[in-house]
Amino acid sequence: MANEFSGSSWWETIPVFAALLVALFGPGWLVVRALGTRGLEALAVSPAVSVAVIAAWATVTQRLGLGWSWLVLAAVTAVTAAAGWLVVRALGAHDPVLTPRRRLLGRPDPHAALAIGIGVAIALATILPAIGRPDELVDSPDAVYHLNRIRLFLDTGNFSIVHPTFYPNGFHAWIATGLQTGAAPVLPGTNVATVILAAVAWPLGVVTLVRHALGTSHIVTYAAGLASAAFVSFPTILLGWGVLWPNLMGTALTPAALAIMLQAARTVTGRRLRERSRRWLGQWFGFAAALVGLALIQPNSLVALVVFALVWFVTARLRAGVLGHAPWTAVGRDLGIVAVVGVAGLLTAPLLSARLASTQSYEWKGQVSVWTALVEVVGGRLQIPVVLWGVLVLLALGIGWILLRARSAIPVVAMWGVVVALYVMAASSTASWTALVTGYWYNDKVRLASLAAVPGVVLVAAAAPAVRDLLLKVPALRIQGPAVSLLALALIPFATVVAQGPTRTAMLDNFFRPADPTHVILSSQAQADLAVLAEEIPAGEGLVGRPENGSPLMYALFGTNTFYRSIPVPDTGDENLIGTGFDDMTTRPDVCAALQRHDIRWAIDSPHVYWLDRPDRSSGLFSLASVQGLEQVRTVGDYTLYRITACGLGG
Questions:
Q1: Is residue 93 within 8 Å of residue 281, measured between CB atoms?
Q2: Which residues, other chains included, contact 623 with Cβ-Cβ below 8 Å and sequence gap of 6+?
């Protein structure tokens, strides 16, 4: 299917864009400022804190019998901010010198703002044309579950983490909150939300992180904005693969949390103890609030922060030993404690959590050699046929510059190296001991490749001062300082966005418009056909059909009460019973009872089958034309609607 880019349709999403931005930044901004977090970090970390406010309070208010709404959000935000303010005042951690305006708004840096704007502009220019239209459906199986859950939240006002079953609710609760304004339906609203994460939250977090890791010089600041668009592994791949939208959100918000962690750990020491204490507490309060949000989006984002924190600690202790700032006996003791606690945690965590043990049991086929895995993660050749030499060169230059000129950022190099090692283990090994480590990411190398982009952007940004220093060694260029800096900065987008342009676009285009029709869940024509059939079904009455024919999306798109709302059919419960026994319902009282329990009075059939097929779980829903107890109602396109007349459901 051809890509039909519609700029006007994207302009029409501005109201939902604004609503989602307010929900993403507003609550968190007020809370972190009340907690004493300042500067760019307060803005960058506010999305994670907003999600913590929305997701946690939505679960609490549901238990209190309150439906979720913007009014409830305003109330709980005020309560949370007030509680934070009181805690800070009680601890004496507030700064009485700051004016109310400075305390709320801080002191914006125009260069940082411009760098973030550059990152936003590049992301929008590369993402929107590749997606095409805001109502374009990404053809990945998890989209069915995520879209249906958002619709369920909107229909019921119940945004709880256990609705309908336990699953982190941060991603869905934020989007559903934004869509409560009625500014857009579920599908285009969700697409806009993912664009906000990739093109706003991610560049903002990247600029914040790079400035903490490499300093606040102008070249580093602008390099950060450019580096935010350097990788195909993130955010491009997670806009379509899976589709792992909660992972997309968690990874997009990780740089900001990592930045505020570094800020808290490196609080300025040359100030009075009282002022240092105020800054330290505000930073750690903001970091702790962000961790709650990340855990409620995707728990592996929380694990990633723990890993980064441990790497930072280990690297800092080793550096202290090398520089003579601490005796090696103390360094060895500290590293030994970390090793013992880490190994004990890895061994006991799956014993304490059945859900984690299940996650760690995922097996991905297609393991590759260690060398191939390194090429995939370092050279960017993951799900694409070429090595991204531009990124590879920039990474090498950045690492070299950090080792020679910015050694305080060596822990970030170590963080990147650890994620690369995790990727190699996931991509090349099926051993049980590697799953203990990589299982937090489902042993999935795509998730780990995306995570590698978090410290990776720092390395790419460091390439700009590295190139500038190399160019200034040329005698003829020494007096052209600003021009040399601009040339060094230009290398980043030319080596990445420009050089990778066709590759990046082709990847997104294939996610949204697969060439293979069996990889299409629901084409635009199929959506129109199902919309016609949806009008035949009375509100509330249940509909069943093979999940692989795209019918579960009738709930997200039209509100039809579909029995299945994810792909594939679960292997237990009524879902499996109906999926395997529907064709025998006239002789199976247990199947009839299940249909009656869920008020399923309609069935739908189609020759179209999405490629992710588990035929053993939906074998009773094949070829409904030959099933007894059904009455054909209407055929539109490839879809035929039946009324169930058996099991006492015909009335």
A1: yes
A2: 605
